Amino acid sequence: MRGPPDMAEITLANLAHSYLPDPRTGDDFALKEMNHVWRDGEAYALLGSSGCGKSTLLNIISGLLRPSHGRVLFDGRDVTDAPTAERNIGQVFQFPVVYDTMTVRENLAFPLRNRRMPAAEIARLVQKVGAMIGMEAELDRKARGLTADAKQKISLGRGMVREDVNALLFDEPLTVIDPHMKWELRTQLKKLHQDFGHTMIYVTHDQTEALTFADKVVVMYDGRVVQIGTPQELFERPAHTFVGYFIGSPGMNLFDAQVAGRRARIDGASFDLPAPYVTGRGRVQVGVRPEFVRLATGGGGVPARIDRIEDVGRHRIVRLTVAGGEVSALVPEDGTLPADVDGIVFDPAGINVYEDDWRVAPSAGQEAA
């Protein structure tokens, strides 16, 4: 049995990238400057909408792209100019890359043979990965003629077959996989991580994939990493309004507000905040997830009007109009819905305050209880 992998702590130092030869403004950069340390042996999901810079960042880490600014370090060693082969990583791309003239077994063995691994060890690892991707019965079948779904499983298996890599990088690898197999392969990836402790970075725009796979989720927006945190941290304390909007279904409600100390005002209605806040001259908003919005009657709370109710099984989503915008509230499936709802109130534990899209910490470090 092989020993544990080398793994790598990945440091991004003053990293930025522009595809233009002479970038002049922030808008010219696909990746804005960032400084981050990704700890060895952790599983990260790189999450964001299309065009936010996820694949650019992954390609810089893998060595397929050289950053125009800054450095990439593996365990303190500068690998900015090192080719992919020298970084000792496994990478799986969105669209399957397989050799049609080879069998499934030969495809899986290819990276191991390139490293001149003993035949018995190759056979053991190929058999193991073949079982993990559910293709034991097809190991001796030519890749030509297999479905895109099956080819992507081969590609995924080839990325996973080496146990000695510094890091495993996945660029939306389950896009062409059917939904049931997606769940199975995510489970296998988590098990692979638990068994071997590889540093894993998994690019996706699917929050379910990110939240179920990763120890830490790296949320990107407009070329920036706006938050790195556990799924719970992203849900409870989104550092940026985009995180609140993107994580959760429905996403966080945002209200333009005036905030002074422990009081906030939305659409003429004022209410207490769970802690004092100090805001400057930027646009101030209060963010509250639908789970923490309560329906009110009798003129209490922020004025609201129910537009429609959606029954989604475990709960109902109540869509309301508040200050001209749509707001969502969650009501338990068996909960009563008053007939004369005319307002909403907030559970204090679920209130966040934002200025110019960034979360404002309670003053004097007084977080909500």
TrEMBL record:
The UniProt record lists the keyword Nucleotide-binding: yes
Keyword vocabulary terms for this entry: ATP-binding, Cell membrane, Membrane, Nucleotide-binding, Transport
CDD domains listed in its UniProt record: ABC_Carb_Solutes_like
Domain (ABC transporter) ranges: 10-247
Keyword Isomerase: no
UniProt-recorded Gene Ontology molecular function terms: ABC-type ferric iron transporter activity; ATP binding; ATP hydrolysis activity
CC per GO annotation: ATP-binding cassette (ABC) transporter complex, substrate-binding subunit-containing
UniProt-listed InterPro entries: AAA+_ATPase, ABC_transporter-like_ATP-bd, ABC_transpr_FbpC, ABC_transpr_MalK/UgpC-like, Mo/tungstate-bd_C_term_dom, NA-bd_OB-fold, OB_MalK-like, P-loop_NTPase
Superkingdom classification of source: Bacteria
Pfam family, one: OB_MalK
UniProt similarity note: Belongs to the ABC transporter superfamily.
Protein name, entry field: ABC transporter related protein
Organism: Oceaniovalibus guishaninsula JLT2003
